[in-house]
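Quick start: what a row looks like.
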Amino acid sequence: GLSSQDFRAQRIDILEHGAVILTSKLSVDHYFKMCNEMRVTVPESMKYFCINEQTAYYLQKYIQYRKRKIFFGHGTMLDLVDVIRKNKDEKFLLPVSDVHKEQIVEFLDELQLNYTKGVFYKTVSADLSDLKSLSEYDVLVFFTPAGIRSLKANFPNFKQGSIRIAAFGHTAAAMVKDMGFRLDIFAPNPQNPSMTGALDAYIKEANKR
């Protein structure tokens, strides 16, 4: 997590925002953890916009679910377009990690919302040392630049060879190329908005060869 001191340096007033956008259970945890550390009492009038139903139900860990205004999509922010537009006069808060997907920020910019992006927690490279070898895998899938940095940190001598690398989002894709790897599969794309769809399409195409 982020210390309250580091959070204060961003000069974000949590209570200035009447709505919060939550993209994962982790963002829920760190949002309420920071509220607690900053001695902020979240009002019952707060509106919660969650990426999916699981994230929305996870709010029950911190609030009385039935009495709150909670909206959720089915896994993408696009699912929330209509309900966000209906609440466009609100000031939104977007809790993110220091390494995050820029698509959500671009999405909010496109909707011309009044929002604040706040770093509430940090991403660290995962310890992958228990993996003996990557050669047994056909595809490595990355959703964040941090994941690719973790690969480089844990396997400095990794040679891609015939292993396919998939990336979700432009920032992750750019990091794959910056690290000198070959990007084989990219999502979202016009045909496949999800990584699952992009992988399925790639496999079907590969099987034709």
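That is the whole record. Strands lie at 19-22, 47-50, 69-72, 91-97, 114-121, 139-142, 164-168, 185-187. The radius of gyration is 19 Å.
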